[in-house]
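#onboarding

Welcome to the new folks! Below is a worked example of what a typical request in this channel looks like: someone posts a single protein sequence, and someone else replies with the predicted structure as tokens. Don't worry about understanding the tokens yet, we'll cover that in week two.

Example request:
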Amino acid sequence: MKRKRIDFNHKPLRIMSSLVTDVPTRQLYDPVTGLYKISYEDKDTPLVVRLNAKVQDPDMIIQNGSLNDGLSDICYYLNVEGTRKLLINGSDGVTIVTNTESAKTKEAGKITITKNIVPVGKATKLELEAKYLDVRTNQIYPIKAELKLFCARMVGHQSMQLDGGGSGKYDPFKYDSTTNNQPDKLVIKATHKIGSVTTEANAAKLKFVWKKRREDGAYTDVGTSLLDYDCEVSGVSNETLTLDRTMMGDGCSIYCYALYDEGGNVASKSITATTPYAIISQTRILPAYDTKLIGVPPNIPSSVAYINPAIEVTTTNGTVSNPEEIFIFKWYACTNRHSSEENLQEIAHGKTAEIPTKYITDGNGMLIGWDELDQGGVKAVVDSDGAIIVDSDGKIVVF
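Example response:
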């Protein structure tokens, strides 16, 4: 007997698959607040991805249409720039619908993710792998599909500001009424913002750099010169500068720059043209003032050898209580000769003076003159070569 085998010549199945979602696949991450937009952790916006898989049988043996209920070995991977990580059903916010022997579903291949698992700034893909059995031939078809995901870092406008300092005039006078007194020490607080959100002081991420103007016009870091006795920088991120205006001389100009690195490596940052900054400019300026003589009796008995007048300094803010800290007072006296060229002689220094009455003559009396010389702001004492003079403890001598 001769024999010949006859088989069905099944044509290959046509299989189409894709991943689809109604949820945005692009997120924004705010490094300042640590929040995502959109956030897959929000109960209203989890990442829900469905597998749209269809089969076509040219031989019309298998019904054309969805093949999801025939899938097995369904797996999802998160592919981050070539590195794949298997997503485990029921772990890390991942839920995957699969088929079982007893229950088949056209929802098979659906994945729900309730965690923000997409890394910031890296190309990421959600990849599906599954198997489909061709019941005609028992051939297994691999099912693959992918969906691109991305999370971008939200870049907000950086800015900074100074609280407690800026451009201003310093009036060194003290007044009997303390209401108008200006503080000698300014505590200036620097803050950095991204958008409208204030950055928390953090030594690894945020650093303020304070630079002071020198006599040659250059700006160098506060603390690098012996002449910075009027400034003190403090704080986790160097965010506070304390300026003693009694020691700043005639004024000072200071730049404050804010260096920021969200990744925690602010040491790698340097000042550039786009670095946010603010300026402190303080100037010592005496307001308009007047002086007058007080303490002179209207009638001086001939037995009195000395009188003790004083000088009173006033401004629109009231009577100045510390004039000797500001001025060098000089006293002059002479006999009144009714001449345009009086021979006034310097006889004393200080706010008060002891003036002899020997200059008084009958009928003419005497003339008293006084003068005030602004001592200027406190400055370091230098020698003839310009070197700063220090005491035995190494502290700068100021005057």
